[in-house]
Amino acid sequence: MAETFSSRNYMRDLRLPFCPGCGLYALSDTFLRAVYELGYKDLSNFIFTSGIGCTSWIPSPYFKADSVHTLHGRSIPPATSIKLLKPNFHVVVFGGDGDIVGIGLSHFIHAARRNTDILVIMGNNMVYGMTGGQVAPTTPYKAPTTTTPYGSFEHPLDAAKLAVAAGAAYVARWTTVHINELKESIKKAIQLQGFRFIEVVTQCPTAFGRRVGFKDVGEMLKWFKENSITVKQAEGMREEDSEGKIVVGEFIEMRRPTLVENVYALLKEVQKSG
User: Fold this and answer.
1) Which domains are delineated in the chain?
2) DSSP string of 110-142, one letter each residue
3) Pairing state between β 228-230 and 46-50
4) Contact, 125 vs 203, CB < 8 A?
5) Cα-based angle 92, 93, 95 (whole degrees, multiple of 5)
């Protein structure tokens, strides 16, 4: 009888900490399903790093894998070091929007610029969910939060576009409605080289949804579906017409020398000259 997928085969016997209806259940399960479909029976070929925030709890301590749980916004530097020391391992960073493009924004930009050979998966719930529902860099314009009760007066950061501009080798964005597309994107990203970034727009019914007026998780998912447009559709629209939409799809895929390749090539040159 053929073995069927079960996320529990890759997880410790611990209860996940997420609120009922949280989209991070789907993100965690989809990542592990992608790993399974690539033929990995366990996570011995993977090393994970994460910071502080809801998404950061996905790998540590729940995955049966080596992981480093770091300070807020500081998950990418140790991932860089690990990849340089262990180039044959898949190094994956999990973090939220506040962790990756708020507190850790400079690390994110420079990792893309260097083409650091890591995969960064960002759960974007559009708010600082774990710390009280404060406004985040990705909070939609005019959306109320605990620190902007009359609505955010800032326009959100487009993390996917920033990653492309900074030099990432692969960038994609999906929502928790686009589970099959997300799974295939994760499978592709694991097999590619260079700095790979996948943004996952995910529902947070506790700290975001109820404050902006969604009655339940179903309403949030319906909004994700109806408010999403593809990259190709966005290219044919005026900027003001696409504002507020969730642009999903693959933004870029390219091949250029990675940080690991450059460092090891330089070491060989130095050794020869010495």
Assistant:
1) 17-273 (3.40.50.970)
2) HHHHHT-S-EEEEEE-SSBTTTTSB--TTPPTT
3) unpaired
4) yes
5) 150
Tokens of 228: 């999403």
Residue 229 dihedral angles phi and psi, to the nearest 5°:
-130, 155
Q: Burial level of 153, CB count in 10 A (0-12/13-18/19+)?
A: exposed
How many residues are given for the chain? 274
Could you give the percent of the chain with pLDDT greater than 70?
99
CB 200 within 8 A of CB 27: yes
Going from the C-alpha of 159 to that of each of 93, 149, 163, 202, the distances in angstroms are 15, 24, 6, 14
- pLDDT band at residue 1, thresholds of 50, 70 and 90? very low
Q: Rounding to the nearest 10 degrees, give the CA dihedral for residues 69, 74, 80, 86.
A: -10
Distance CA 115, CA 109 (A): 10
